[in-house]
Amino acid sequence: MSAALWPLSGTVNQYGRTAARDLLMPYGDLAMVPSMILHIRRTLDRAEIDKIIVDVLARKALAVAHPRRADWRKAELGASRFRSECHADAAALLRSAPDRVR
């Protein structure tokens, strides 16, 4: 590499590091699991890596789904309560004035 390109190579290298970090940041947990297993066992084959990826992604999906399902269940309970209150109010109205409600 010529001497004129040396200052530029540091900038390009830094840009590459920043771009790589930004691309990998959302998958940090996915990169940490194989890293921890490699520290212990020193080897992983393709099937084990695939299983790790599937497990981590499934756990992420469940972590996202649990709060969403809890919110949905709360909405269902609220709707059920509202429905029962409406039926109770309608029944009370029918008992109080059966000749005026048609």
Q: What percent of the residues sit in helical stretches (DSSP H or I)? A: over 70%
Number of strands: 0
Amino-to-carboxy terminus distance? 93 Å
The assembly state of the depicted protein chains is: single chain
Give the overall average pLDDT. 80
Bin the strand percentage: under 5%
Rg over C-alpha atoms, rounded to the nearest angstrom: 30 Å
> Ranges with pLDDT <50 over ≥5 residues?
none
Structural notes for this entry:
The chain has 102 residues and is an all-alpha fold. It folds into two domains: 1-44, no CATH class; 45-102. It is built from three helices and no strands. It has helices at residues 6-24, 28-41, 46-96. α2 (28-41) crosses α3. It is elongated, with a radius of gyration of 30 Å. It starts with 5 loop residues before the first helix and ends in a 6-residue tail after the last helix. The model has no long low-confidence stretch (mean pLDDT 80).
